[in-house]
Amino acid sequence: MDLSTLARLPLWIDGRAVPAHTQRYGEVTNPATGEVIRHVPFADKDDVDAAVTAATSALPDWRASPSLRRARVLMRFRELMEAHKQDLAEIVTQEHGKTLGDASGSITRGIEVVEFASGIPHLLKGEFSDSVGTDVDSWSLRQPVGVCAGITPFNFPAMVPMWMFPIALACGNTFILKPSERDPTMSLRMAELLREAGLPDGVFNVVHGDREAVDAILAHPGIKAVSFVGSTPVARYIYETGAAHGKRVQALGGAKNHAVVLPDADIGFAADAIIGAGYGSAGERCMAISAVVAVGDAGDALVAELGARARRIKVDAGDAPGADMGPVITGAARDRITGYIDRGVAEGATLVVDGRKPRIAGHEDGFFVGPTLFDRVTPEMTIYRDEIFGPVLVVVRAESLAQAIALINANPYANGAALFTRSGHAARRFQQDVDVGMLGINVPIPVPMAFYSFGGWRNSLFGDLHVHGMDGVRFYTRGKAITARWPDDGSAAPGFHMPLMG
Q: From its phi and psi, is residue 198 left (phi > 0), alpha (psi between -120 and 50) or beta?
């Protein structure tokens, strides 16, 4: 099926594309042109129920299949994702706007989670204790939780779903994906490739939609666990509502990631790193650097270097040759971001580079915001407090590393933070004292590899477990402890006292 030719996208239920029950549809646009390229259904309660029914029917056989057999399906899926990577990146660029190189890189990071999940026979091994009592042994198992759901954001239509469903499937669960309605086609292509890899019908399902679909997922008694990535207000709502309905929930929220630059740092190196981390994917990353803390004498030189590099960034359609940065996702996002720039100017920040109203030849109707840089920003300003989620970098001045750490720890978000320095002592102090979930030392975007877990603290995470890595395995399984004795004559029958194992 050529999804790119469809005027109306289908759902994916029970191993095939099906039309939605709903009569509500939204527009999917190409952000570089502003053109409506297809329509996406907004699933209703009946659509969600159909997906849950399919996932529930498929669950017994899938969970009973050997873990090695499940892993082999993922191995074949990984090969297909690699083989189709260029075509998949083009889908991401067309609907999201990010450059082809960035889209391809994000798919690679998702594939790394598939590779991790392919080791599930080892990762599901329990513990065993011989002779905890006379002729008594104890051991543990990890078993699937059941039907799981993922609610994912627009900024990574391939990578973030692959943070979730490969591990869930490998652990023996079935899965329902509710992707962003802004760029939904990628989820359907992954469903097709999973079927081609040998995944049984009903194990993976896709329902598109808005809040109605989300609420149906959160309330459905057949769904046992929900994973979410998005803004903090919605993450809090997902966590509280899902938990109130008895579900296991991991909900990753917003961020205001800081990069601290000390006077001893290589200023050119730090500026190059921060430019990519702040303006890559038009700043629409939950791990984007959005606040730079210049310590002491680093400030003036750093701002000069950042400004010079920001002005050299080529803004164009994501598939244009040599493009460094594409458009933002929608016209509404463009207007919101430029509104923040207006607010920063009004509140007294120094506007070093102005990204409002860039002129992109041939793309006058696209949703573009150019790289924007503010200096002399204070913690009280709106452009510092809020997650802008666009290509806007703000520079805050600090007198010392201690002051910079205090600034980070006072922020309500705690997703990621980075330090640029040549001092091992400063780096160790930073990694010990900063209350943030993911840290980088001379690394601007410290997204961990798939065999570590991804997640922040404070308002950047609601729930106890992060995504992928071993936290992902723990989230998508339940622990079970077993204690057994095999007497041969009945002489060890239990009495009415508390059983003792000694």
A: left
Spatial CB neighbours of 47, under 8 Å, sequence gap ≥ 6:
11, 13, 20, 21, 22, 41, 207, 209, 213, 216
Q: What is the C-alpha to C-alpha distance for residues 460 and 418, in angstroms, rounded to an integer?
A: 16
How far apart are the C-alpha atoms of 422 and 444, rounded to whole Å?
Answer: 15
Is the pTM value of this prediction over 0.90?
yes
Report which secondary-structure segment, H or E, holds 492.
none
pLDDT of residue 36: 94
Domains of the chain with CATH codes: 3-253+460-481 (3.40.605.10), 257-441 (3.40.309.10)
Beta pairing, strands 35-41 & 25-30: antiparallel
Of 264, 302, 267, the closest CA to residue 424 belongs to 264
What is the share, in percent, of the chain residues with pLDDT greater than 70? 96
pLDDT at 494: 60
What residues are annotated to the active site? 286
Cα 246 from Cα 256, distance rounded (Å)? 31
Q: Which residues contact 412 (CB under 8 A, 6 or more apart)?
A: 256, 458, 459
Contact of 398 with 360, CB cutoff 8 Å: no
For 352, half-sphere exposure in the C-beta direction (CA atoms, 13 angstrom radius) is: 22
The count of other CB atoms within 10 Å of the CB of residue 399 is 9
Mean pLDDT for the stretch of residues 356-374 = 92
